[in-house]
Amino acid sequence: MCGIVGYIGPKEKKEILLDGLQELEYRGYDSAGIAVIEGKKLSNFKAIGKLKNLREKTKSYKSEGFGISIGHTRWATHGKPTELNAHPHLGAYSYVVHNGIIENYQNLKEELQKDGVTFLSQTDTETIVHLFEKFNNAMNDPFPAFQKTIEKLEGAYATLLITEAAPDTIFFAKNGSPMLIGFDGEEVYFASSDTPIIGKANEVYYLEDGEYGFVKEGKVTLFNEEGEKNFTKQALTADKISAQKDGYRFFMEKEIYEQSHVMTDTMMGRVLDDSIHFEELDKDFFDDIYAITICACGTSYHSALASSYLFQRLGKMRCDVEIASEFRYKEPFLTRKTLFITISQSGETADTLEALKMAKTAGMKTLSICNVDNSSIVRESDVAILTRAGIEKGVASTKAFATQSMVLWMLSLYLGQVRETVSEEILKREIDAMIHTPKALIVDEKLHAKLTRLSKRYLHGHGFFFIGRDIFFPLALEGALKLKEISYLHAEGYPAGEMKHGPIALADSELFTVALMPKTMHYDKIKSNVEELSARDATILAISPEPFELADDFIKTQYDSHPMLEFFEMMVVTQLLALEISVRLGNDVDMPRNLAKSVTVE
Questions:
Q1: Does the annotation mark 46 as catalytic?
Q2: Structure confidence at residue 75 (pLDDT)
Q3: Please, which pLDDT band fits residue 601 given cuts at 50, 70 and 90?
Q4: What CATH number is attached to the domain comprising 384?
Q5: Second label for 203, Cα 20 to 30 Å away, from 62, 343, 395, 596?
Q6: Of 409, 440, 471, which closes a domain?
Q7: Dihedrals φ, ψ of 365, to 5°?
Q8: Catalytic site residue 2?
Q9: Active-site residue among 216, 316, 357, 597?
Q10: For residue 197, what are the CA distances in angstroms to 55, 100, 222?
Q11: Any idea what the CATH number is for the domain that residue 89 is in?
């Protein structure tokens, strides 16, 4: 997730761009840049790190008179956070900024390199500007060249392009990533969300997928696949915080709803029609590896625990999962034939980082799964795979957990693929399920409304048990963690089969049991476990595609063709349940007491 701004008009453009990027810094802050064309003079500036570095770099620059301008704040998906990888990207005479992921960029890049184009960055974005110039050099007509460019792009993108070939025009296109156009008389603004243009524009148009066009002399010309299109502006909100939340009450709620979209980003270029591909991994990466150890904390530990079932089931490789805060004190047995995987949302988790350093000292091959490029854990690891979740502002993790779980699922299938432990039939089945995962993550408004109504029944009592089997046991742990983090109610996750080994002694009408009952995995066994709790008067909330007559409350799920589809759909239910209980209790959902987003001390 990155941030785009653009402006065409007579005002001082540097400050408009920098102020706009400041409002979008929550979307990306590993580098930033701006480009301005005034007359025939093109200026550009880039800086890595926080936006203050770009402000310092441009403090002596001032733009005057009519001009066109674009800016970008980056959250890396391809290439390290460097000035070369920062946007805007330069061709021979054009600049481009872009949010999203160009899925076919490798093929486009190879074609352009054969034509003699030299690439300066490691990014997918740079292909856009070189492709445009290739077409424009042949056609000598910028807009048809831009049209032809976006026709070649596959994936998600919101992009702005400016060129000396049309120094009074901004070209734009949107597909899968958000972008809007703001209006104030003859002045026109672009942004990834409302906040950069609040107080500047008074009307707005939210671009739809597949729309593209250009702005010239204060007029927007808009197209879609059917040709030129009329559009209707609407009034712009004046509330910046509300605008950042896109109309949601809390960032956590927004991030739950975003999961379907970011999951597509996570899979893009990795889940292919008939295989799993990680450009980060060499073909021989798993050679001489006979076991896996995963080390993580909190939510990341839960995603690791779920993946251990998949690594053993699909990759046929032993997988041990360690809590990072305990790992160092076990005097662990570390061997070079074991791959050491660390998982961290921020890449700065102190316990996980120290465990990683131990593994490096022992000469182990290391891999990190993280949401922040150039973080400490990413830099320390031999290889890093980014989850591409975008910035998560809610302290209680949602989309970071979802994308970690997907990366680990993909990695376990990739391992089975390279080790030839999965058949073509299984590979096809798993890939088909992955492709359907974003749909399983779409929040059903009726479901959310039902959970809002149910939440009032779960405000008191002496605690919650979240129970599940197999991969749904780690999901039960995660569901319980979400609830305790933001509601401050006691909750535990348990393997369903362990209830009769002690915990069932707590069962009474004031014990709330959230039962994860997937149809595709051990349904009859967990049904028996829940029946035991019901017989002891526990209050049962059953989550399942199969109606359960003993449930006091029942949430019907839709997917029952693959365990991971059920996993992700039930994950959303538990997240929304925690959210709505917390809201009813009047808690600060986004900033729960005593917690920090990144735990950087031991």
A1: no
A2: 65
A3: very low
A4: 3.40.50.10490
A5: 62
A6: 440
A7: -75, 135
A8: yes
A9: 597
A10: 19, 21, 20
A11: 3.60.20.10
